[in-house]
Amino acid sequence: MKSVLITAAATLSLSAQAVVITFGGVNPNDGSYLTSALTPTNSINPALGIFNETFDGPNGGCQVNSAAQGIDVSGNFWLTKGSGSGKAAAPANDSTCYASGPLNLNNGGQAGNTATIDWTDFLATNLPGKKINYLGLYWGSIDGYNDITFYAQGKAINIASINDIALNKTKLNGADILQFGGSSGDRKDPNTNRYVNLWFGEDEQFDKLVFSSSNYAFEMDNLVIQVAGVTETVPAPGSLALLGLALVGLTLRRRK
User: Fold this and answer.
1) Is this prediction's pTM over 0.70?
2) CA nearest 203: which of 155, 159, 154?
3) For a Cys staple, 240 with which of 51, 69, 122, 248, CB 3.0–4.6 Å?
């Protein structure tokens, strides 16, 4: 019921050229602390176009689970647990695997410090003509220099507004999220370690994401997408990599 209410609330306030952001998830009781209310047990639902990436592999290991399903996950990121590396900090209360980037910092800014999750081939094969209208991720210690760029058919999408606040740019960054509360880089503040739900209007639906960060790091876990207008069952990926998104491929964050 909770996921239905969230979906209805977002849909009612969503215009064709807008992004609506809400905060909050549910505890899947698997050690990862927060996931989307659309996947309360971290299970996918292909009949509703809902897929996820937990970055957890068998026997306690870490892996991107959806690359084998035709989802392209690539870039300068790594999968890890905990916060002792000096390159990444786990999202608050998350004891499972998560994605972080960059793995190796390129000091030339964001160039090279990117991770990509590309669903283009997956959608063309399984859901031709469809795009993604929802992204959820457990975004850890959000930094102002963490960026996400959304693409459709190879072109970066302009985000006109977020929650009726004018944006008019192609990159959504941590500062855009932190304006709703939180201190940049805080590893414990619940307002800086949030499950972030992004709902996209018709003109801003996407088929690829690029995560970038100009410093350590962008961290994320429990990435969830929903494909718009799905009414039939599609083959179920073992899990969507984003990071399904490759954040995410990616998650990128600075040493704190």
Assistant:
1) yes
2) 159
3) 51
